[in-house]
Amino acid sequence: MATNGYSNGGSTKGKPIKCKAAVAWGPGEPLVMQEVEVAPPARMENERQRRFPRILGHEAAGVVESVGEGVEDLAPGDHVVPIFNGECGTCAYCHSSATNLCGTYRVDAFKSTMVSDDGTRFSVVNTSGDTVPVYHFLNTSTFAEYTVLDAACAVKINPAAPLQKMCLLSCGISTGVGAAWNTANVSKGSTVAIFGLGAVGLAVGEGARIRGASRIIGVDINPEKFAKGKEMGITDFISPKACGKPVHEVIKELTDGGVDYSFECSGNVDVLREAFVSTHDGWGLTVVLGIHPTPRMMPLHPMELFDGRRITGCTFGDFKGKSQLPLLVDQCMQGEVKINFDGFITHEMPFSEINEAFRLLEEGKSLRCVLRL
């Protein structure tokens, strides 16, 4: 899901804000819509355990309400896209053209506090009447009417860009399109296979289509996704349950030996195996995008890499968020890059119906549901 919100643009500088947020009190529990208090930003703001209660969410767009001491590149009223993979602009990682990671603000699913003081900016009154801290998530915590970000995790964008579409750049579209453009550098006339046709997989398809790939093969166990895939430029579809043989064999038959690029977007190590062996020996590249919760290791033998195939991971589409996303937004606004944002937004709902939005996502009936604050 992606949230889209606005603010008063600076009228609460230095003051706490009370607002509605969807609070997660424990793993697997429904989110609870309740009032939280959000402390003002500390210096340079706009632990290693799973902590609750927590405010989840990592795709959004909004307007800066206020900034903390030391923030120079953002001001109240700026339109911004939060990013979970921050960019401080000063560390060795940020200065390197070989990575989009940041030494301090890189993505970290276990991080639950702010960098400046290891504290939280959210609090809530629990059922016992006690005020307790509410922890942060992925540098963003966007399932709230107001949130506090490190300045390194807020990207200033063109104020004319529609926030209800730009929220998709917080993760899904940036990750998939960037994987095709930046990580794989898909070339015109090449062949591509995408394993998993959720929002990220379809965004890979968008990126490959824009780059002029001649054949884009979508693989998913849910054939209902094929119609949306066709809309995103995918040319061929394979349902593993219906093809009667290993998927990589089907792909090799379709492409005279294998695709030039494959993208694993499912988070399944067996699928990762199929994605890898579906590429052409000598030059095939597999990009791993899926989140893999299993403790199982990668199902590859080292000698298989001597066939010339390569495999790599990708974070946030290898975009440097603060440096590169503003240009992408401008290119989309000017028509130089034509990304089908509307095709990814399958539902829109009020913020209060967030649990219903999650249900649609889990059942495969939704790509992205924009929650209106």
From TrEMBL:
Residues 199-322 form the Alcohol dehydrogenase-like C-terminal domain. SUPFAM superfamilies: GroES-like, NAD(P)-binding Rossmann-fold domains. GO terms for molecular function: alcohol dehydrogenase (NAD+) activity; zinc ion binding. Its main location: cytoplasm. It catalyses: a secondary alcohol + NAD(+) = a ketone + NADH + H(+); a primary alcohol + NAD(+) = an aldehyde + NADH + H(+). It is found in: Cytoplasm. Residues 48-157 form the Alcohol dehydrogenase-like N-terminal domain. Its cofactor is Zn(2+). GO terms for cellular component: cytoplasm. Coiled coil: none annotated. The keyword Nucleotide-binding does not apply. Pfam families: ADH_N, ADH_zinc_N. Keywords: Metal-binding, Oxidoreductase, Zinc. Homodimer. Belongs to the zinc-containing alcohol dehydrogenase family. PANTHER family: ALCOHOL DEHYDROGENASE (PTHR43880), ALCOHOL DEHYDROGENASE-LIKE 4 (PTHR43880:SF56). This is Enoyl reductase (ER) domain-containing protein.
